[in-house]
Amino acid sequence: MAVQPDSGGKDDVKTQFVTREGTYRLMTLSEYSRPNRVGYTSGSGSTHVRVSLVSLPPGPGGGAPGSDGQASDDRICFNHGKELYVYVYRGVKKAADLTKPVDKKMYKGTNPTCHDFNAATVTPESVALVVGFSTGQIQLIDPIKKELSKLYNEERLIDKTRVTCIKWVPGSSNLFIAAHASGQLYVYNEELTCGTASPHYQLFKQGDGYSIHTCRTKSTRNPLYRWLIGVDGSCINEFAFSPCGTNLAVVSQDGFLRVFHYDTMELIGRARSYFGGFLCVCWSPDGKYVVVGGEDDLVTVWSFGERRVVARGQGHRSWVSVVAFDPYVVSFSEGDSEEVADEDKKSESVQCYRLGSVSQDTQLCFWDLTEDVLRPPVRARASAHLSPNSQNFSPNGVPGAKVPTKCTKTNKVGHKHAELSGHNNAAGEPSGAKPVAKTKANNVSTLNISVGKAKEESSGSLGVNFTQRLAGFSFGERRSDHRRNFSLSKPAEKTSATNTVALRGKSAGTHTNDTYDPLKLIGTPSCPRFDECPVLEPLICKKIAHERLTSLLFRAEYFVTACADGCVNTWARPTRQHNGEVRPRRSERADRIDLVD
């Protein structure tokens, strides 16, 4: 490989690195962690350190009030162990003040595992933060006002397993989605309560490899919908909405990427991992590509328009934990250079995407996804589709599925899912799904999401050849023990096993399709052989932490990383002098990219 990952000693951690646009530098004064953080000790990390950022709108004084009375527009939230912290985020301009958190919470018997700010309802004086926990509960708080505090699944009657991913529905003020390690995904309305007894579900809709259920209740309550996706409840490790909010990409421990149309609940495309499960997923800024990372140590690029895997990136030496596009670093066609990427004369056609990834090998990789790789000559594309094993598969990998070709960016609040009028669903039935007779159920317009179950611990996988990888194909997941002693609420009453495995028997027909045989997918557009698609090399690959990296977020002037020891770092972008001002070298015009479905 042209770019080799760092192979230095354990303490050979980089504090700066150089790309063709300049030098990225670690801002040591902008490090966030627990206030009483001790020095690095091997093996002391938490596996679920996540970071959430939100920008507050300007207040009357020109900025949102900070905890020290100074104006600051950003809030950062991160978790470590049993603790959750919210700070005023100062970026690269000022040093972090760890002595004055906006909010700090410590939990007994349970750990926060994921969280998300609601950008649709944020004000200078208020922001909604939803938090998922290792024992299945969900909490809604306002770290600024501190008046809001609600619990969902408090008695663990809905699900007893760890919340693996939680996010607000784009544009919605009250709907959020939570995926659990049981392999199920739930849709909640923060204005509704949960039942006092174990929910009873009825089949609402099913399609190829997934099924949707609603609660059989007389009145609307949480959860509004439950999704069951994949084989035998394989853990959903992460899900992500497209930039236009129309589509939902889901990755799970069974090694599949599944892309759904959110409003119609239709499966419109999928991809299979080269080996093991997929762990993370993200969309390109224009919605044309989905990138996933997983236990095959690879970064896989899937084209939404062509419904196929178009490239793989090889550079990490362990499981890829986070992938994220950098929307502020793009190159356009017509010969526009990166240095003038912010000029208004530029074409709207993206020629090169910048992608970042972090892994359990403590390495940060940057990738340039160029047009010549993503859009090879027509003849090469045709030959890839004519692989012998692909004869029985449609171009999008879903037999018989009808897929939309275009969408526009919308601002539909809740995507028609917040309408609570009547028991009948107003959305049309997807062509690839089988409608089910409706009885009394939650009265909400159709929602769609996905389910899954997350892999617990991870160990670095060594480089092996293709034959060895196939011989070691792992399509199941370890079933973790459910901890029953925790403390957000009173211990739950003994409930039936139907909470986590209900309806699996009834909907088993949705999971036994031959198209989900991993070996039969080898050589198809969903999982081309290793020599059938381009293999990318990283632009840079640097060791930047002692512990496994768990978060990566890009902003206009910096990017943020976090690792398992609870340390959140800020990296400043390269700067240039322009008319007496210091500005980022790359484009900040990511909002000009056309969104597609």
- Shape type: globular
Fraction of residues in helix? under 10%
Radius of gyration: 23 Å
Reading off the top of the CATH hierarchy, the class of the domain at 16-44 and 195-479 and 525-592 is best stated as: Mainly Beta
Q: What class would the helix/strand composition place it in?
A: mainly beta
The share of residues in extended strands comes to: 25-35%
Organism: Papilio xuthus
WD repeats: 271-312
InterPro entries: WD40/YVTN_repeat-like_dom_sf, WD40_repeat_dom_sf, WD40_rpt, WD_repeat_creC_regulators
Biased composition (Basic and acidic residues): 578-597
Describe this protein's structure.
This protein is mainly β. It has a domain at 16-44 and 195-479 and 525-592: Methylamine Dehydrogenase, Chain H, CATH 2.130.10. The protein has five helices and 35 strands. The protein is globular and about 60 Å long. Residues 40-45, 66-71, 335-347, 379-393, 410-432, 437-487, 489-512 and 577-593 have low confidence and may be disordered. Residues 578-597 have a biased composition (Basic and acidic residues).
